[in-house]
Amino acid sequence: MDTVTATATIVEEVLGVRDLRKIYGGTAVVDGISFSIQRGECYALLGPNGAGKTTTLRCCLGLTQPDGGTIHLVGEPVPREARRARIRVGVVPQIDNLDPDFTVSENLVVYGRYYGLADHEVKQRLPELLEFASLAHKRTARIGELSGGMKRRLILARALVNDPDLIFMDEPTTGLDPQARHLIWERLKALLARGKTILLTTHFMDEAERLADRLAVIDRGRMIAEGRPRDLIRKHIEPQVIEIYGDGARTWAEAVGRPLVPRMEASGETVFCYAYEPAALLNALEASPGLRYLHRPANLEDLFLKLTGREMRDES
Questions:
Q1: Cis peptide before 79 (omega within 30 of 0)
Q2: In the chain, what percentage of residues exceed pLDDT 90?
Q3: Whether the Cβ atoms of residue 244 and residue 253 lie closer than 8 Å to each other
Q4: Is 213 helix (H, G, I), strand (E, B) or coil?
Q5: Which of 16, 37, 130, 243 is the most exposed place for a label (fewest CB within 10 A)?
Q6: pTM greater than 0.85 (yes/no)
Q7: How far apart are CA 176 and CA 194, in angstroms?
């Protein structure tokens, strides 16, 4: 590879992870994960609780020492040059960690000091940041006066104080109502349109499907699938899903439905039927007026549940 091509490749890869490993108590919580994120894309890490997502993010930021593999963050080797790399990175954590003693504007100014930014530099950017977060009318408000959605938007604006190349977003819309989630999504799409790069973890499959250019599904420390959302759905899931629910759904599905579809799963009172040609099953359901059902195309949640299972996982 010539020098010009090599340089272009380095610039385009904002985060490169190769064979990342982390072991706790003899158990590999991250077991050979590799991925690459290119400039301007949104890449999502999906997985059940305890899959290794947060540990992977902490290793990428240089906050946790890996036991193997290599990480290059905005061109810098991590953890050796993690501090230098983090100057060009923004972080939206799971938990709101705003300072309640400061106003909205003061939170942004003080945070800028962690990046070595002078107060006047951040103050020059305040109108833009507050407008982006739809918080210009709250600039002098204390944190306790903000709603949950406002706090999340402020944390997002705070992550942009240093004009980062890459933004780590660890479950950015957890705990928000639908209206607040949609507003956050609009802001994230605006960032991507401006050429920013996002690494996203989320438990909301619709969020990943809306935002992610590519995603990886990880479970028990290993990557089990990677690709574009729609490509992965087409590869792993039958295209049509019929959900049958209510009293008698399981009995009917076993007796009548099972021969009509290639795959069927039950969870609680709902039976999920996966099909390429659903007409026969739909006709049978129409002839059984006591049953309720929903017919829809396959989505990312179907993919996630097929790859990782439906059993509950404890928090870790």
A1: yes
A2: 85
A3: yes
A4: coil
A5: 243
A6: yes
A7: 25
